[in-house]
Amino acid sequence: MNDLVLPFDSCMKHKTFCVLMMCADAKKQSQMAALSKERENLQSTIQAYRTMFQTQRTLVEELRTSVHEAAREEQSIRAELRKQNIPGAQLQDTDSVEKLITARMKERDQLLHKPRRLCGLAPAPDEPDVIGKIGHLAMIENTDIARVISWHMSADMDCVITLTTKKAQEIYSKTQGRQQVLPLDSIYRKNLPDWGKPLPHVRYRPNWKPPGRPVYARDMLQFHTDQESCRLVFGMLLGDTLILDSLDHANAYRQEIIKHSHCPTILTWQGDRIRSNGKFGGTMNKAVPIEKLRGAVFGEPLPMAYHALCTQIASLEQYQAALTRHVQAQDELQEVINTQKNPEMSAKYKECQEAEAQLVEIERQLGVGVPSKSRAASSTPKDVTGPSPAKRSRVSTGGSPTSPIVSHRTPLNGSIGDAAEPDPSITPTRTSLRIASMTTVVSDDGRKRLRKT
């Protein structure tokens, strides 16, 4: 190629870094094509390696997050178990937790099958709009309280509670009028007592502490189903009936209450009853033994220990699941970390580094690599005032040639000593020498171009 014409104005306008590659013959072009193909292959290989490494790093981060969340959940449940008086020594691993769960289940089953007081009445019909019999709707823990309240409500214990009057009439017809029924939609609710109101003496003598431990009878009941309807029924049937320790305490309490207001019916733990009109004594106001109630007695609820064991078992099962997830997350994380450290993965890291080194070398041979900051600064130094060796000295405006400006290889103090060794980092590149060896010419169309000299 004798002449090489470049659009110089276009290069200066777009500030494009032009790389000129000249191949003397077909052999040189073939070598350059082979290097380019090898460069593309290396880039694909390096990209595949980097994608694999990034995937592994992402997996490690996700597994570490899973381990952290599992550990936090485990510690939270462990704190709850500590509040339930479960020793931490039995929570070290899944095997010990499994043994503890088995022991707690055995204790729970023993309490569940332990003999306790039950209502002996026949159950209500299992039909829609039927709530149940009054004797089955409530439970009382204390036997003495269960005896006196069951005796006090003996006339109502067998009554079937329904939601609608229509259902009550249907049951009445089926039993030919022998079954008591009480529909909820026929209850006048305006005068029902407030379930949470204070005792009668609190209103008039708030600082008085009466003997006999007075409580509302309804507060001794425990409902296991349809609590709202049960409160409605027992609030109507029991009203504000009170319970005190003995008959003497009941009479003393009544004497104090009637000074200010009406006194409701009072029952005692011993089985006595003072009616709201003040009448007491006789066989009609003394509760019979529980055996003579013929099963018409409120049942006994499961003990608190049973419910505590159920809560512990549920918490232990949650802790066991959280502990298992924590251990599995730790094992998965350790497996991935070990995989990254095995010889096969180390060899892949080494292969990637070797491929990157080969890519740098090939790009250097092709001249298409991105120059580093130091190389770019040394290739086009801004503070170097001397011209390139291939450039001719400029002529001053006076017409006399000016002496070449001393380059930075000349001593700074201006002495004519031995020149310093040339710095290879600021030696003009092959491309710079090639451009410097061209001259600017003006073509016929008026455009400036470069011509090789």
From TrEMBL:
Alphabetical keyword list: Coiled coil
The keyword Coiled coil is annotated on this UniProt entry: yes
Coiled-coil regions listed in the entry: 32-80, 316-365
Segments forming domain SMC hinge: 128-254
Pfam families to which the protein is assigned, alphabetical: SMC_hinge
Keyword Ribosomal protein annotated: no
Biased composition range(s): Polar residues: 395-413, 426-442
Residue span of region Disordered: 369-453
Name of the protein in its database record: SMC hinge domain-containing protein
Originating species: Batillaria attramentaria
